Amino acid sequence: MNQTLVSYLSEYQFFDGLLALFGGNMGLLTFTLFLAVAGAYVGLCATIGGLGTYAERKISADIQMRVGPNRVGPYGILQFLADGVKMIMKEDIMPRTADKMLFYLAPFLCLLGVFSTLAVFPFSAGFMLTDLNVGVFYLIAISSLVGVGVFLGGYASNSKWSMLGGMRGASQIISYEIPVTLSVIAITLLAGGLSFGTIVGKQTGFIGNWFVFHNPFAFVAFFVYFIGALAETNRAPFDLPEAESELVSGYHTEYTGMRFGFFALAEYVEVFVVCGVAAALFLGGYNLPVEVNIDILPIQFVQMSILMTKTLLLYYVVIWVRWTFPRLRVDQLMSICWKYLTPFAILNLVGCAVWAVLFEGRSLYQLLSGH
Fold this sequence. Notes:
Blueprint: E1 3-4, H1 5-9, H2 14-21, H3 26-63, H4 79-89, H5 100-115, E2 130-131, H6 135-143, H7 145-156, H8 160-191, H9 196-201, H10 216-232, H11 244-247, H12 257-282, H13 297-322, H14 330-358, H15 364-369
Helix pairs in contact: 3-4, 3-12, 3-13, 4-12, 5-7, 5-12, 7-8, 8-10, 8-14, 10-12, 10-14, 12-13
């Protein structure tokens, strides 16, 4: 069975009081809880996405020995709110020859593809909306909507710059999904399941139990996943879909105001999601280094803090990489995917399968320590 947030909360005494408030209507209570928590998750990730623009500016300023935003709020931390207000107030313009329906649909597809992944995002052992037994497949499938939104944004604008950016984005995202998916499948082989609860649960205890240190193939798979995730989220040095020096702005050239803001928000939230998935798959997820009773509610907030810390550290690395390496050419980008990352991903997948059979699923740490 699939573990859900409601089934977890039903184990506490206050749940009976909530059920009584809803007149014993379990369906209505379940819907309300899911709606409230989903809204909280969306609000949290939207805030993180906004703060990501602030972090981008501050980290890049630090790398380039500049000050960065320092005018709006303490240390400029409210700059992302000022940008949001500015985008809301800007005029919403659509080209006369654009496909109106697809033009309006594209940014919402990107947001839908990103926020829908929060349904299985493993914030903690109990704070998951649902722990699907095919959670990994669901996340890979639903996140593909972002690629559709990027392509439609370029196609519907009826602009050569936007179209080129959309085609680049579609080819890049579809191509890099292959090594990313193969790397994720390699971890599911080691975990013996496709649910995030199962995968994170296999990494309890000492840091040596993390899948990134499980065997040499899983170690390489982490870097294949991370590089592929950079390309899937259109981050530098793989930001060819919006190469300003070549395409003016790329697939969202013709978008203004909040519609442009939706594309930017989807990108920064997607970076958070892929970093969180990397932390869950390879870096122990929300696990504490010691055994704890997950039925204690405050422990859930501690686990959530651990997962967020790992995720934000990877978020920092993503920004660091952007301001360190130059942009690749299109042919270089595709060569890296098909000539290097995909063969490595296949090798890692086969290697993890062989390792699991030969050593009965035990990790390198367990073999060396005699467990």
